[in-house]
Amino acid sequence: MSKAIRIFENGGPEVMQWVDVEVGEPGPGEIRIRQEAVGLNYIDVYFRTGLYKQPLPGGIGMEGAGVVEAVGPGVTHLSVGDRVAYAGRPTGAYAQVRVMPADIVVRLPDDISFEQAAAMMLQGMTVQYLVRDTYRVQPGDTVLLHAAAGGIGLIASQWLKALGATVIGTVGNDDKAALARAHGCDHTIVYTRESFLDRVKEITGGKGVAVVYDSIGKDTFNDSLDCLAPRGTMVSFGNASGPVPPVDISVLGAKGSLKLTRPTIMTYVTQRDLLEPMAAELFDIVRSGKVKIEVRQRYPLSEVAQAHRELEARKTTGSTVLIP
């Protein structure tokens, strides 16, 4: 018998229950993983609350790392004993052991720890597609990055600097501002006491930025559009403050022929020809030292409710892992 977190209804952190589960043998195209570390991500809150729908009762969590215990028929790219990591659906990462599709799982280099992997797969591959595909950042670009002291934010700040960008990051307080600057932000804006729109215009001399990376959603969307230079790109990839209301696309023309996109990591990790080079580039930049993955909070998996409370209260910074 193994242990896992299950949710039987949507709601607050208290709906997550630490229960006994039977873990069987992997079927065709599946593997069984003994997990050494699990990632905590804001998307987990969306599934818990019901903003993102899934059948209930169900699992939760989308990122983990561990060792392959068993391999089902038809799996050729993984073997028993392999160190592996993954990010993506189906949910169910909050578990000691799980059976899951093998096609979203990649081998983990020996010099990257399980905790590092669990802290970076979803966030790091998100940053990879954001800065290398959704909008391909060029040397000299000026970028606005919301939530710059969060898990994605700290990875993105470092990666953007490695690409030669000027990074403007929004944060909630002075401590987070210092953290963001230590990870590559050239300018930090404490949004709780100053207008990020006014500050971006000031920093850029009124020109605006080439791209905005916005995981906040409703509260920042309109002002983010106004931070863009003509022909700039608005990348909305999260809803921490709530979903963005319907958009009149004529606004994009009126504000300077802007581009608007709403990418998701699910598009990438479900295609093996995209997943493998994404993961490889992430592993390479981490191993080079240009992007450092720092686990800033650890919780026992059984105490994940407390981790969710602190995440939603904006008390966490950088990456958080859960230990099964």
Automatic annotation (TrEMBL):
Transmembrane region(s): none
Keyword tags: NADP, Oxidoreductase
Sequence ranges assigned to domain Enoyl reductase (ER) in this UniProt record: 11-322
SUPFAM superfamilies: GroES-like, NAD(P)-binding Rossmann-fold domains
InterPro entries reported for this sequence: ADH-like_C, ADH-like_N, ER, GroES-like_sf, NAD(P)-bd_dom_sf, QOR-like, Quin_OxRdtase/zeta-crystal_CS
A Pfam family of this chain: ADH_zinc_N
GO cellular component assignments: cytosol
Taxonomy, superkingdom: Bacteria
GO molecular function annotation: mRNA 3'-UTR AU-rich region binding; NADPH binding; quinone reductase (NADPH) activity; zinc ion binding
Protein name: Quinone oxidoreductase
Organism of derivation: Cupriavidus cauae
